[in-house]
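Quarterly update, task 2.4: magnesium ion-bound model.
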Amino acid sequence: MASTIAAPRGTADLMPPATARWQELEARIHRLARRYGYGEIRTPVFEATELFVRGVGETTDIVEKEMYTFVDRGGRSMTLRPEWTAPVVRAAMQHGLFSQGPQRLYYIGPIFRYERPQKGRYRQSHQFGIECAGFGGPEADVEVIALAWELMQSYGMAGVALHLNSIGDEACRPRYREALLAHFRPHRSELSEDSQRRLERNPLRLLDSKAPEDRPFLDSAPSFADVLCDACRAHFARVCGYLDAMGIPYAVDPRIVRGLDYYTRTVFEFVSDALGAQSTVCAGGRYDNLVKSLGGPDVPSVGFALGLERFLMILEAMGFTGEGGRDGIQAIALGADARATLVPLVARLRGAVRSPVFADYEDRKLLAHLKLADRNHARYALILGSDELAAGEIILRDLERRRDERWPLGSVEERAASVVEEGR
Ligand code: ATP
Ligand code: MG
């Protein structure tokens, strides 16, 4: 026998009933984003490699070791999207959106990173994210945080904590850089290989390290709060003030940095106690310098990315299935003559009711048909046997209340429309 082919490591096939949970979450996200005035953006799954090298930063995990990069047949270096912010900014620049005033955009879709697959960490995963571009003030920071918070609240999620920090701007970051260098340099040889390499180029990146040998030096590192300039300090205080006023709980956490060079001022993460080691479900911050650094105008922006797999893991831990009760009709024909009548009836029913109409075309015993109805989670069965056919009738069985009614064949659509919609 030829060897079979499996899905690549770190990817997943999504099938029913899991896809019902995805659809429910995605539908909720679309409604929520719409309510906050965000419009959906979809960009290509691959982009010029250069976009991510410049947009994400050369010393980041993503660019150093996680990108799926290939040379296409025209000799161009292309990369599967490892994150959405750079492509969104690229698209907004390319289509002149930034000259039209503030932009509120959201996205849902796959990202690709060559990671070591483990719980909550995959090579193809999916993110929901938003980008709010054109506002420099703390109001926009709070708007994006509030949107993520509302998504979690809408499921009644407990055990999710918002961690908040400020990483300053061009005015105060150089001072922080120096403070970090002074802190880490004496321990250089004790740091992880990645951190040793990054130390001189971008010491901020070290704070983001997950290497256990770096841990003690991270814990004792100086905090940004000590060196923030007045403007950044005021901005951060106002973010905190708004969150207080809106009743969104948070903890100031000096260890949150976001590795990417273009982040400024506010950075935040939502962390869940239901996730184990990969505990960050949503991460974001303000990136006032990205658009400019990609060759665009000066557009202060803020956004987040939320991992849908991790979000669904939290929901699963809460026992949320995304499934409603029984819904729809299983149409059952017993015998070839009944089937000949039932098939066009099914087509008419699908036009008459909004609930699903399931049909099976094999000769089976009634019991086998009813098992299929259970598998389909159907609320009703419409049963047409030869006796019913001869009498010009059909049986409607309510599979939940275990009750039968006989309906004239000529009135099935109208009756189904009222009964099924009521019973939903
Ligand atoms: P981590 O520190 O876990 O590697 P990150 O800083 O690389 O996260 P971001 O780039 O900020 O993650 O992505 C935002 C969110 O997207 C993460 O908090 C997580 O929920 C999700 N995410 C990122 N990478 C993966 C992955 N490989 N598999 C599953 N989810 C992911
Ligand atoms: Mg990562």
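Highlight for this quarter: Residues 18-172+228-317 form a domain with the BirA Bifunctional Protein; domain 2 fold (CATH 3.30.930.10).
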